[in-house]
Fold Signaling peptide TAXIMIN 2.
Amino acid sequence: MGEEDCQCRPLGFLIGLPFAVLALALSLVGAVVWIIGAAVSCLCPCCVCCAGLANLAVDLIKMPVKVIRCFTKQIPC
């Protein structure tokens, strides 16, 4: 049984769902930070810290998907 045979793992999805909802809330915060950081970096391109802040915000936005994938990979078929 290979990795491609076992793509659907509903138990891992259900266990990870509450954590993904929390990550979704953090991703909304990340989206707001990203928008503010993008606006500040447009106004003052010399602010290098805004680029790092924007990268952190993008990671926060991607977090719910990463959390669900992590939980589904932990549960065997």
In short: Residues 63 and 77 are 24 Å apart (CA to CA). The chain is about 80% helix and 0% strand.
